[in-house]
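Hi V.,

Quick status before I head out on leave. The structure for the redesign project is tokenized and pasted below; the design run finished overnight.
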């Protein structure tokens, strides 16, 4: 005879939606209503990372800590103007920091901004924290 385990109701630390999730299965960082301006800024940020090339750029720069734009064309197999376009979008979204040294542009990842973005989906961004959407 197999023992039947009684159903356990979820606790505050572990709810039916999973760890880091709000009670209605939305990331806790999205449970507070967004005003239109914040929603538009957040959408712009999410669009910036919703592109495979931009995700590759973020991972390459994060792994290299600080890279010249000229070092990014070969790993991506893209031409310099295309890479520069994607770097500009990531910089405008606040995810990259651009340092101009003579004719060279050097990029590094703003790890605080990246952590804020990740926290949106893990519930580590407080609902009242409206600093995330502002680039």
């Amino acid at each position: 005879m197999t023992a039947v385990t009684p159903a356990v109701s979820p606790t505050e630390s572990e709810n039916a939606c999973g760890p880091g999730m709000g009670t209605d299965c939305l990331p806790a960082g999205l449970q507070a209503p967004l005003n239109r301006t914040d929603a538009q800024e957040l959408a712009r940020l999410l669009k910036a990372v919703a592109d495979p090339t931009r995700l590759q750029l973020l991972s390459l720069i994060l792994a290299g800590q600080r890279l010249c734009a000229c070092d990014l064309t070969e790993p991506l197999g893209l031409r310099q103007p295309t890479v520069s376009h994607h770097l500009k979008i990531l910089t405008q979204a606040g995810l990259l920091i651009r340092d101009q040294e003579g004719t060279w542009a050097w990029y590094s990842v703003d790890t605080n901004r990246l952590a804020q973005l990740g926290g949106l989906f893990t519930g580590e961004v407080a609902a009242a924290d409206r600093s995330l959407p502002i680039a």
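Above is the designed sequence. The longest helix spans residues 36-49.

G. will cover questions while I'm gone.

Best,
W.
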